[in-house]
Every structure is written in C-alpha cells, then in structure tokens.
Amino acid sequence: MQTALENGLKPLEYLTHVFTQIQRNEEVPIQSLLPWAEEMPTHCKLPQDVATEK
C-alpha cells in the first residue's frame, strides 16, 4: 500500500487493477503490474497536486 502511495497511485484502485488483470489474463507481464510501471492506467493515479505533496 505504501509503495503505491509513494508512486502516486490510489491504493484501492491500484490493487483492483492488479487483481482484475491477473483474473483476466494469466500471461500478464508482472512488470506491467508493479506500482512504478509506466503502463499504469490513469484511473489508478492520484491527481498530480496530491501526488507531489509530502
């Protein structure tokens, strides 16, 4: 959860995306499911102003 936040992701949306992709496709590349993957869908990302606050 913390890694998702540190990579600017919404934890619940991120985990939902990961579990959905695993269910749909057993051959999904694990690299595309990591929190720092560039392919992460927009709906999983925090708004830019929230992601940069620390």
Protein model, in words:
The chain is an all-alpha fold. The chain has one domain. Helices cover 43% and strands 0% of the residues. The chain contains 3 helices and no strands. The longest helix has 14 residues, at 11-24. The protein starts with a helix and ends with a helix. 9% of the residues are buried. The model has no long low-confidence stretch (mean pLDDT 91).
The number of distinct structural domains comes to: 1
Could you tell me how far the N terminus lies from the C terminus, measured between alpha carbons in angstroms?
16 Å
Cα shape = elongated
β-strand percent reads: under 5%
Overall mean confidence score, pLDDT? 91
**How many helical elements?**
3
Report the C-alpha radius of gyration, rounded: 11 Å
Largest sheet: none
Q: What's the order of the H and E elements?
A: HHH
Secondary structure: number of strands: 0
Which segments are poorly predicted (pLDDT under 50) over 5 or more consecutive residues? none
The secondary-structure class comes to mainly alpha
Helix content: 40-55%
Short précis:
With 54 residues, the protein is an all-alpha fold. It has one domain (2-51).
